[in-house]
Amino acid sequence: MLAGETTVSHAVQRSRTPAGIRHSKTVDLRIVTQRWLRNLLRTWTVHQRPGADEFARTLRGVELASRALAQRPGSDDPARLRYDDVTAVVDAFRTALKLDGELAGWTYRMSIASHFFALIDYGRRSGAAADLSAAFVRDPATHRIPQEEANEDEIGKAIPEPVIRQLDAHLHLLGLPAGADLGVVHGEGRQSMRQHLGLHPA
How many domains does the chain have? Predict the structure, then answer.
């Protein structure tokens, strides 16, 4: 293996302005165990000269994909890849973690998936991945990363504890007209309860 095959340099811009100071950063590609995928990333970087954020997200997608493919037989040969291999890659994106071990945000996971498959598309268009199996393709209907529903515990945290206790004690009042008697809840408590229930002030 040649030394140049395991590293790649990409431009890093320190300012968002066109005149921002740019310098090259060398990245070790040995984290990408499949030679065909490593070479594709390297070719894309050299010819497309992506910005720092685009490169970082593409690299993260490639890293996760490489790790998933390494668990499957024949992933070193791009011609042998199949639909199930794409499924394994997408599963890795669905469960991508942050540095602290928590699940990465949905937007970020969608982004790294999009950047990875954009790299694959580039490889096919440019001929840089000419040997890549035609079966290695994402199915929009199956290979989705669903957005999580809002966490009920997190929603509950938006309501002050005193109001939650009032609501728990007066659940039988929910659904009554705005003029209904709120019983023992008086003054500020009643006003707060009405506000969080979306009722008009008494």
Answer: 2
Q: What span, in angstroms and rounded, lies between the C-alpha atoms of 33 and 41?
A: 12
Q: Does 147 reside within a domain? A: no
Whether 111 and 191 map to the same domain: the answer is no
The continuous run of DSSP H or E covering 9 comes out as strand 7-13
pLDDT of res. 99 = 85
Per DSSP, the three-state class of 22 is: strand
pLDDT-derived band at 11 (thresholds 50, 70, 90) equals very low
pLDDT in tens, 148-168: 755 545 545 556 666 666 766
Structure tokens at 123: 């490889």
Domain identity same for 14 and 103 = yes
- Are 46 and 11 in contact, with CB atoms under 8 Å apart? no
Pair of tokens at residue 187 = 């003054």
> Which of 126, 141, 166 marks a domain boundary?
126
Same domain, 108 and 166: no
pLDDT in tens, 70-85: 999 999 999 999 999 9
Domain extent, residue 156, equals 152-197
Residue 37 near residue 95, CB atoms below 8 Å: no
Same domain, 69 and 103: yes
Tell me which residue of 48, 39, 55, 188 sits closest to 116, measured CA to CA.
55
CA-wise closest residue to 126 among 60, 57, 45, 53: 45
Give the Cβ contact number of residue 2 at 10 Å. Answer: 5
